[in-house]
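Appendix B, Record 12. Input sequence as logged:
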Amino acid sequence: MPLGLEGKKAIVAEVSEAAKDALSVVVADSRGVDVGAMTVLRKQARENGVQIRVVRNTLARRALSGTHWECLNETFVGPTMLAFSYDHPGAAARLFKEFAKNQSDFEVKALAYEGEFIPAADLDRLATLPTRDEAIAKLMSVMKEASAGKLVRTLAALRDQKQEQAA
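Logged structural output:
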């Protein structure tokens, strides 16, 4: 059933609003993926702060014109699925990477981060970004190692000082 002008305007407004607050966008083609798998993907997306939209290419181009994501316009060929990450820039990329492992028909076309076009071959660039909690844990471990190293050096200096006084 064809969309009327008002329906198209509503879709463009919704996608434009979704794009405004997104940290990153991933474009994929889900042709051949069964409905059950797509339902699971959508559920996982909601749990990870990712919004998935299937949009006609012309409407997607209109919705993303004038935004950071305009660089993705060339990838809007064939069925297009957009995934907007809100909580973490790598959330959608990580989600799609895992999903593509089990679904041979699922194809990531491209992604964008802060207005930079990233080809699908470089999906790991965003998918491997640590989450906020992982980054904090790494920072804390580095700080802990640094403080432990300083303690060891201080104790060694005290030992050396006492040995010099005893001699």
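The helical segments are 5-20, 35-47, 57-64, 91-102, 124-127, 132-166.
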